[in-house]
């Protein structure tokens, strides 16, 4: 039968109050020790040792490094890869790299003398164990063994959830297979390396022995004595087990344990223990374990590079084992007593020596500067190491450590630390700044071959300037270096950009294409002179371009001056061309009105029609308006006569097009076109004049090179077509003719792979000219081609022969030392003379001076001079040397002009007197200044050596360059003199005495005030360093009047500060936070508004309500009034909030009893009651609920007191 409990209103009220007297009386209060169990007085440590009661006051053990190092040895017979020639290569190396990637451990391989493999593994314990397992399975051959233990012990080997078995496999680097529970076998199979098998067997037998019900005895014997107990091949321990019947488990050498476990019957175990101790005591007397004190940082110096130092000792005393423990200041030695004494004395001598001459130092450097200290490829740190003979350890990035350790010679350590700290300090002072410079200016700033930016970098060598990649389309140029240098460089580059913007004005000047080379002048002399004198950049179109515009860039007034100069050259020139000889008159501009609908037909396909008019009329320029603009005006520009001629042709062509336009096309081989046109357009002009038709030949970029277009009236086109067809037919009529050419001229025609013959063929319709073979001694030359072309080619060849017959040979004597200068870079000057004067110039072979060649050999005698057939001819001292004679060949008048041109290229020398102290400034940094002048003026400037103390500077170059170079050098001297005077004026120093307490106010927030003074007055203001004796001295450097003005500005600030007063007022601490505001916003507003300084008390101040107001008297009063008003306003809010809190948290003394919801009075709450509390059983007082000492808040400090606590004695 089920029952239901009904909850009434009365029972609910009783339940909620929990204060019903009957129920309260039924429950017994808990005991104090049950409610508040005491902390354990003592706790057993894992090793079984007892720790003191107050664990916090005990000495904290030093934490050991989490990185461990273990060495594994793989004997030769167990190595999987035995190819000795491939050590460090091949599959073995790949396996090691793979293991390091998988486990995160670091592996180092070395080969022992017995060809065994030693592997040192470093890393976290877990990583090392995993790496070890991988090494064993992949680098060592595997073996297997079985161990038999009772079936009931198998579960202990497996452990909970297989954890013990996994740990065992990882620890021994083996694979352990335990038979299934339903398998009756008790054999456990182990596979792995020989060493791993031993470890695993040992561990399994140990587990079995511990679980065995028989007696177990553990004997601690130092590891070094284990081999004496086991004997050779474990024979001794096997004999003992057979004799006693006990099982003796000795840990293998690879397991770092000293405990030997003996299991079996008690009598058997006791007998085995006695035998083991007997062996130990016998050997202990002849075997010693000792240690040598050596600081851990010296261990690697004791070991030496690749263990060389240690190898010397171990080779002499191979029985002594030397062990270094990481982080410990000692070296452990084990071995025979006799050998031990010698090794210990040697080790102590090494340690003493190293301690006396070695030292170490640790410096703190921010990790973000570490890679800069190391340098690219370790360049910086390696230089410091080599220079000071020290070892420097910089922690890796992942350690985030500030400490850099320097070890080595004491003096070297100090010097290296000083240099490293200076480098770090310099880097801390570094600043990176981004300049916004439009990308179009980048190339101009960099200059040709980086010359301009090199000058900037030479001026600011400590600043690194990085330009963005052109493909990035970025305007940001990054500057990095010392703060002051970066600012100076930034201002300098900004000025450069401003100058470029100012100089960015450009003009386009139309100059006839055939005049461009005259504007440039010989060797660029004309254009260079205009550029230098007007300080502009002048760009000419490419030679193969059709553009006639010359672009001038620079300041507006300079561009106008350059434009006038160029136009004046054009006006004065008489240009000779191969096609037309023109007398240049004032350029004429003319406009012609032609209906826009005819423009395209007048221009022709790809501009063929208009281009033919421009070429025919001496290169006039015809400009049509943009297509679709509806403008009828066509502009013609050029010489007046040619403009008029082009105008007539255009109008005629337009009229023809408009009224009776007719076009015909015919084809002719491209090689005939030149002959059809004729020299200077003579042939085609005859056809045009006789018929009135216009004939247009294909341009180079036209697809059909054979197509000739005839335009005009129907009749004119028909007649022109007929004449052209007759000409073409005659050209197709191939004839062969013979002419006589003297064999001495044959070489001229066939030289340079027949260049002259190729030119004749191109000009005269593809005529083939055949000369007789070399050695045939014939003067017959055959010409084959169209009849008219053959005749014209024959006539041209006769003209060439006449020129050759008129040629003379002339000698020009110029000293050999000037020949290279005359030739110019890559022979450019001599090529110009050859081209301009149409002569051949041959320079003699270079002859070294006496002593540089071999001994002189007479032409008709023996080398030693003993037999001479003919007496040597007397040498004429006035006769020129062969090496000085330049031979010219050509027409006499041309050769004479070329000789004059050659002599004009002979350099001359002049001397300029320049004060010796200015020489180094003229040379410039790394010779940049003098190189720039030499390149600019095309001269060689020689400055005397410093030891000569001479004022004479020699200038060597062409006569027309020397005057400009001399003027430029003297101008540079004038600039340097002015700079020296300016430097001395700027060096004026002035000192002002200011109380150090005012220095922060003068400097201002983030240096704003002092920077403003420095910038405004262009001075340097230096405040005293912390260690200076005169802390009140401020030094101002600059021009005298500016330094004085800066001093007055500082003095004005000081005077204003001295007039200020400081008053303290009392403001309730509860309103301080509201006055200060979020992130100090409120207080900053008050300080800015009233121009005063406010200081609020620090936490823990004696008077937390005291606030200091500093400023001018009237402003301080206003600020105080404002603060007091704020306090009054904020305090009203504070009082209101506190009164609300009293209602939200009623106190416990509002009456001993209260009424429940049913109107009944309920008893007072007893709170939480305990029995047998310390204040009830002893003399202690009950804890005070309102006391912050008995019930402290979390994080609040508790004042020390001697009075007893109700909670018992304090343990902290």
UniProtKB/TrEMBL annotation:
It holds the Pfam family KH_Vigilin. It comes from the Eukaryota. Signal peptide: none annotated. SUPFAM superfamilies: Eukaryotic type KH-domain (KH-domain type I) (SSF54791). The keyword Nucleotide-binding does not apply. One of its GO terms (molecular function) is mRNA binding. The gene is HDLBP. GO terms for biological process: cholesterol metabolic process; lipid transport. The keyword Nucleus applies. Residues 15-51, 1141-1212 are annotated as: Disordered. Residues 710-737 form a coiled coil. InterPro entries: KH_dom (IPR004087), KH_dom_type_1 (IPR004088), KH_dom_type_1_sf (IPR036612), KH_Vigilin_N (IPR057778). Gene3D superfamilies: K Homology domain, type 1. This is Vigilin. Keywords: Acetylation, Cholesterol metabolism, Coiled coil, Cytoplasm, HDL, Lipid metabolism, Lipid transport, Nucleus, Phosphoprotein, Repeat, RNA-binding, Steroid metabolism, Sterol metabolism, Transport. It is found in: Cytoplasm; Nucleus. CDD domains: KH-I_Vigilin_rpt1, KH-I_Vigilin_rpt10, KH-I_Vigilin_rpt11, KH-I_Vigilin_rpt12, KH-I_Vigilin_rpt13, KH-I_Vigilin_rpt14, KH-I_Vigilin_rpt15, KH-I_Vigilin_rpt2.
């Amino acid at each position: 039968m089920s029952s239901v409990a009904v909850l009434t209103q009365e029972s609910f009220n009783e339940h909620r109050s929990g204060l019903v007297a009957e129920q309260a009386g039924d429950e017994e209060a808990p005991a104090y020790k049950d409610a508040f169990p005491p902390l354990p007085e003592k706790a057993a440590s894992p090793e079984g040792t007892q720790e003191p009661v107050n664990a916090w006051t005990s000495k904290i053990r030093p934490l050991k490094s989490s990185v461990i190092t273990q060495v594994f040895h793989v004997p030769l017979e167990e190595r999987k890869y035995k190819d000795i020639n491939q050590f460090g290569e091949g599959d073995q190396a790949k396996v090691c790299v793979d293991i390091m990637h998988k486990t995160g451990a670091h592996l180092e391989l070395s080969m022992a003398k017995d060809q065994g493999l030693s592997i040192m593994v470093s890393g976290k314990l877990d990583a090392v164990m995993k790496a070890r397992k991988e090494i064993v399975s992949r680098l060592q051959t595997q073996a297997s063994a079985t161990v038999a233990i009772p079936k009931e012990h198998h579960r202990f080997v497996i452990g909970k959830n297989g954890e013990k078995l996994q740990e065992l496999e990882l620890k021994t680097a083996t694979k352990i297979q335990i038979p299934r529970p339903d398998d009756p076998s008790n054999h456990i199979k182990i596979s792995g390396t020989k060493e791993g098998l031993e470890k695993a067997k040992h561990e399994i037998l140990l587990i079995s022995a511990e679980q065995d019900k028989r007696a177990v005895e553990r004997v601690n014997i130092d590891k070094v004595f284990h081999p004496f107990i086991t004997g050779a091949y474990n024979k001794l321990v096997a004999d003992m087990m057979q004799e006693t019947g006990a099982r003796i488990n000795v840990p293998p050498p690879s397991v770092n344990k000293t405990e030997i476990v003996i299991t079996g019957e008690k009598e058997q175990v006791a007998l085995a223990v006695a035998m083991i101790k007997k062996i130990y005591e016998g050997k202990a007397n002849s075997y010693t374990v000792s240690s040598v004190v050596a600081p851990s940082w010296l261990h690697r110096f004791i070991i030496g590079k690749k263990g060389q130092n240690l190898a010397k000792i171990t080779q002499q005393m191979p029985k002594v084992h030397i062990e270094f423990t990481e982080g410990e200041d000692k070296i452990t030695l084990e071995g025979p007593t006799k050998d031990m004494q010698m090794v210990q004395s040697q080790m102590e001598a090494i340690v003493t020596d190293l301690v006396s001459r070695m030292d170490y130092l640790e410096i703190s450097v921010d990790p973000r500067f570490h890679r800069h200290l190391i340098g690219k490829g370790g360049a910086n740190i390696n230089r410091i190491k080599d220079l000071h003979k020290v070892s420097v350890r910089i922690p890796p990035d992942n350690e985030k450590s500030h400490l850099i350790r320097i070890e080595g010679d004491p003096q070297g350590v100090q010097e290296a630390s000083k240099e490293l700290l200076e480098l770090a300090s310099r880097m801390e002072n570094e600043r990176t700044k981004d300049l916004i410079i439009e990308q179009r200016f980048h190339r101009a700033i960099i200059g040709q071959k980086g010359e301009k930016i090199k000058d900037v970098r030479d001026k600011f060598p400590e600043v690194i300037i990085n330009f963005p990649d052109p493909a990035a389309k970025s305007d940001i140029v990054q500057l990095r270096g010392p703060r002051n240098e970066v600012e100076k460089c930034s201002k300098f580059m900004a000025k450069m950009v401003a100058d470029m913007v100012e100089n960015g004005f450009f003009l386009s000047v139309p100059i006839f294409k055939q005049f461009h080379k005259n504007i440039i002048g010989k060797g660029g002399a004309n254009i260079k002179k205009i550029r230098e004198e007007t300080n502009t950049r002048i760009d000419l179109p490419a030679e193969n371009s059709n553009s006639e515009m010359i672009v001038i860039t620079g300041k507006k007034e300079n561009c106008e001056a350059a434009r006038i100069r160029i136009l004046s050259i054009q006006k004065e020139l008489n240009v000779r061309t191969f096609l037309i000889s023109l007398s240049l008159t004032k350029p004429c501009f003319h406009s012609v009105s032609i209906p826009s609908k005819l423009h395209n037909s007048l221009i022709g396909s790809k501009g063929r029609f208009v281009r033919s008019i421009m070429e025919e009329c001496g290169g006039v320029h015809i400009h049509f308006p943009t297509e679709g603009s509806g403008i009828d005006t066509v502009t013609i520009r050029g010489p007046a006569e040619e403009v008029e001629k082009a105008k007539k042709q255009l109008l005629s062509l337009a009229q023809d097009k408009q009224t009776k336009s007719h076009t015909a096309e015919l084809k002719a081989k491209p090689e005939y076109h030149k002959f059809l046109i004729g020299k200077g357009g003579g042939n085609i002009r005859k056809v045009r004049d006789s018929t009135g038709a216009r004939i247009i030949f294909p341009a180079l970029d036209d697809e059909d090179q054979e197509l000739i277009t005839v335009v005009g009236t129907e009749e004119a086109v028909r007649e022109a077509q007929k004449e052209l067809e007759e000409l073409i037919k005659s050209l197709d009529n191939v004839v062969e003719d013979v002419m006589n050419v003297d064999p001495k001229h044959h070489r001229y025609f066939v030289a340079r792979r027949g260049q002259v013959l190729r030119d004749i063929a191109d000009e005269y319709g593809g005529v083939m000219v055949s000369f007789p073979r070399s050695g045939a001694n014939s003067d017959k030359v055959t010409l084959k081609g169209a009849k008219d072309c053959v005749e014209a080619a024959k006539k041209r060849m006769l003209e060439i022969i006449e020129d050759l017959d008129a040629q003379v040979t002339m000698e020009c004597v110029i000293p050999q030392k000037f020949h290279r200068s005359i030739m110019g870079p890559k022979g450019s000057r001599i090529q110009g003379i050859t081209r301009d004067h149409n002569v051949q110039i041959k320079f003699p072979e270079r002859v070294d001076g006496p002593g540089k060649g071999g001994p002189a050999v007479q032409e008709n005698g023996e080398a030693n001079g003993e037999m001479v057939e003919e007496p040597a001819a007397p040498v004429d001292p006035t006769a020129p040397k062969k090496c000085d004679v330049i031979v010219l060949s050509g027409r006499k008048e041309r050769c004479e002009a070329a000789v004059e041109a050659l002599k004009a290229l002979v350099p001359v020398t002049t001397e300029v007197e320049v004060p010796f102290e200015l020489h180094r400034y003229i040379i410039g940094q790394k010779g940049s200044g003098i190189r720039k002048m030499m390149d600019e003026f095309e001269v060689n400037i020689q400055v005397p050596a410093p030891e000569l103390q001479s004022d004479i500077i020699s200038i060597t170059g062409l006569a027309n360059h020397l005057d400009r170079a001399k003027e430029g050098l003297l101008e540079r001297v004038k600039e340097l003199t002015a700079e020296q005077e300016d430097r001395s004026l700027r060096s004026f120093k002035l000192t002002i005495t200011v109380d150090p307490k005012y220095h922060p106010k003068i400097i201002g927030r983030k240096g704003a005030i002092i920077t403003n003074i420095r910038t405004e007055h262009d001075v340097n203001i230096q405040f005293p360093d912390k260690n200076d004796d005169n802390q009140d001295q401020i030094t101002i450097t600059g021009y005298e009047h500016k330094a004085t003005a800066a001093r007055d500005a500082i003095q004005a600030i000081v005077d204003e500060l001295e007039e200020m007063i400081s008053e303290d007022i009392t403001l309730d601490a509860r309103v301080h936070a509201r006055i200060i505001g979020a992130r100090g916003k409120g207080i900053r507003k008050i300080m800015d508004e009233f121009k005063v300084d406010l200081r609020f008390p620090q936490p823990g101040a004696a008077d937390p309500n005291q606030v200091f107001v500093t400023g001018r008297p009237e402003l301080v009063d206003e600020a105080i009034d404002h603060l007091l008003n704020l306090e009054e306003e904020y305090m009203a809010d504070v009082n209101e909030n506190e009164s609300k809190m009293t209602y939200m948290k009623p106190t416990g003394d509002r009456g001993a009893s209260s009424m429940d919801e049913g109107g009944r009075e309920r008893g007072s709450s007893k709170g939480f009651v305990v029995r047998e509390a310390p204040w009830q059983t002893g003399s202690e007082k009950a804890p005070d609920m309102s006391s912050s000492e008995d019930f402290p808040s979390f994080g609040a400090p508790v004042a020390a007191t001697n009075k007893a606590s109700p909670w018992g004695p304090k343990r902290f």
